């Protein structure tokens, strides 16, 4: 889950994340920052965000953030499935510490 934390409304259309179809993602123009057509582009607005299930068949990108255009402040939250073996060591440590209480 990604939460957007912009400093102002200047970047609302520039810094949003694009979701792509596999074909759109394959056709990225790597010469121009890997920009590809979006199936959906989220607005980079205050108190907004998005989530999706990451897989081998999900594709997303964001345009390169230039120094002259400021920063892209976000908060990213990842969940992992321990049964599938894709849980991070940090999450395992937190889980162990929580069970010891």
Would you give an account of this structure?
- This protein is an alpha+beta fold and 101 residues long.
- The protein contains two helices and six strands; from the N terminus they run ββαββββα.
- A three-stranded antiparallel β-sheet has the order 4-1-6, with no helix packed on it.
- The chain starts with a strand and ends with a helix.
- 9% of the residues are buried.
Radius of gyration: 17 Å
Q: What structural category do the secondary elements indicate? A: alpha+beta
Ranges where pLDDT stays below 50 over 5 or more residues in a row are 94-101
If strands are numbered along the chain, what order do they take across the biggest sheet? 4-1-6
Largest sheet, if any?
3 strands, antiparallel
Count of extended strands: 6
Helix coverage percent of residues? 10-25%
Q: Give the terminus-to-terminus CA distance.
A: 28 Å
Mass-distribution shape: globular
Order of helices and strands: EEHEEEEH
Could you report the average pLDDT, rounded to the nearest whole number? 75
Task: Work out the strand percent.
Answer: 15-25%
Task: Please give the oligomerization state of what you see.
Answer: single chain
Task: State the helix count.
Answer: 2
List the helices and strands and how they pair.
Layout lengths: L1 E3 L13 E3 L1 H5 L13 E2 L6 E3 L8 E3 L12 E3 L12 H12 L1
């Amino acid at each position: 889950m990604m939460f957007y934390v912009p400093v102002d409304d200047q970047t609302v259309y520039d810094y949003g994340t694009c979701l792509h179809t596999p074909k759109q993602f394959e056709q990225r123009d790597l010469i121009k920052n890997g920009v590809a057509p979006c199936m959906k582009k989220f607005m980079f607005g205050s108190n907004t965000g998005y989530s999706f299930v990451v897989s081998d068949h999900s594709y997303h990108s964001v345009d390169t953030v230039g120094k002259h255009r400021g920063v892209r402040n976000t908060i990213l939250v990842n969940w992992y499935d321990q049964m599938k073996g894709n849980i991070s060591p940090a999450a395992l440590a937190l889980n162990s510490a929580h069970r010891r209480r």
